[in-house]
Amino acid sequence: MAVNRLTDENGKTVVPISEGDSYAWVKGEVSDLVSLFCDSASVEKLGDPLSWVREDSGVKLRFLPCGADERVFKRGEGWKYFYMFTTVFVDIGVRFPFTQFECGVLSQLKCAPSQIHPNAWAFIRGFEILMEYVGKEPLLEVFFSFF
């Protein structure tokens, strides 16, 4: 089996990838977990997903159940959708569309929203709230000096 190497912009090897299985890097315990939201009834228990969208944003979202073979780390076909931990919206208060600061953090980390652990989302959101409280704009440079 041929093995390709994923490298960063400096050519440093980051993760070996087995050809044909782009998810081989995921631990078995993670890939074995099935979503609790695999039918319409469980999705409806989340409440009103529109409350996760900022008012007057014009964002149109649909919240659908996960298929039995779908996992939070998998990429949606054509990037038309992504998976998220519900606690990010329910408990931490992140809303769509993401703020400019949240988009900047994702861009700087080169991560999809689902790749950020809920605890890290709490830190991102907490930093935004702290900066709002002290009347300052949240800056990526300041955030990453702490994170």
UniProtKB/TrEMBL annotation:
Q: Where is the Transposase (putative) gypsy type domain?
A: 88-147
An example Pfam family from this entry, by short name, is: Transposase_28
InterPro entries xref list: Transposase_28
PANTHER family from the entry?
MYOSIN HEAVY CHAIN-LIKE PROTEIN, OS06G0165300 PROTEIN
Name assigned to this protein = Transposase (putative) gypsy type domain-containing protein
Question: What is the originating organism of this protein?
Answer: Stylosanthes scabra
